[in-house]
Each structure stands twice: as structure tokens, then as C-alpha cells.
Amino acid sequence: MTSKKTRRFDEVRPGESLPDLAIPITVALVASGAIATRDYFPGHHDLQAARELGSPHIFMNILTTSGLAQRYVEAWAGPLACFKDLKIKLGAPNYPGDTMTFSGEVLATDPARRTVDVALKGKNSMGNHVTGTATLVLP
Questions:
Q1: For the chain, how many structural domains are there in total?
Q2: pTM score
């Protein structure tokens, strides 16, 4: 779902759906996301430590989720979109072996500021892993 073309503000309408994006959740994604964000909490990379915490597997950290949410919205908006805000809330954990599928919808547009508000969610087999909103400025 990578867009090389930047969406123009005048092309976007409230109610418009963003294309879905399925992301396989792997051990490498969970562990490397934690390491890349300098989150060395054992539950994000050590299976035994995660199990001792009562978790069936290692689990994704919020910074990786945040990065994936931003990637999802920016892939739809294109490379010249300016990301202004991201607000997310975590729900069900992301465990390796599952898939998180992002979906989204344009909530509102503001012609004076050329901003677009987008609602997003990333759902896995247990329910919503992440829900939130993003605000972008489009050319």
C-alpha cells in the first residue's frame, strides 16, 4: 500500500476509506521494534521473561505500534504530506504469529489549515490492538 503520489487536499473527502494494510506480526518485528526504540523491557524480546509475566509470547511495544500507525497513514497520504499529530490507544496485545490489519477513514478536513483528520485502527485476531486519530497537512 505504498503511495508514491502525495494526496492533494482538494482530493480528500470526509468518509473516504483508507485501503486496508495487513502486517504479519513476527518475532523479528516485535523484538527489532523494541530494540530500535531502545525499549529493553524483557517482555518484548525474551520469551521466558514474557511467560513469567503471564504472557503467552513476547509482545509488541507502544513505540513500534506508533511507528506502524504512522506508516499506515503516511503510505496513504504520500511523501509530501506533513504529519502533525498522532493519538493512539492500545487494546489487545500483538503477539508473533498473528496479523494486524489497519483500516481507516477520513473524519474531517479543514480548508483554512489544509488539515485532514483520519481515524485508524489496527485489528488482530483478539480485537483492536490500536485505535486512534492522525492529523496531516496536505498540499
A1: 1
A2: 0.93
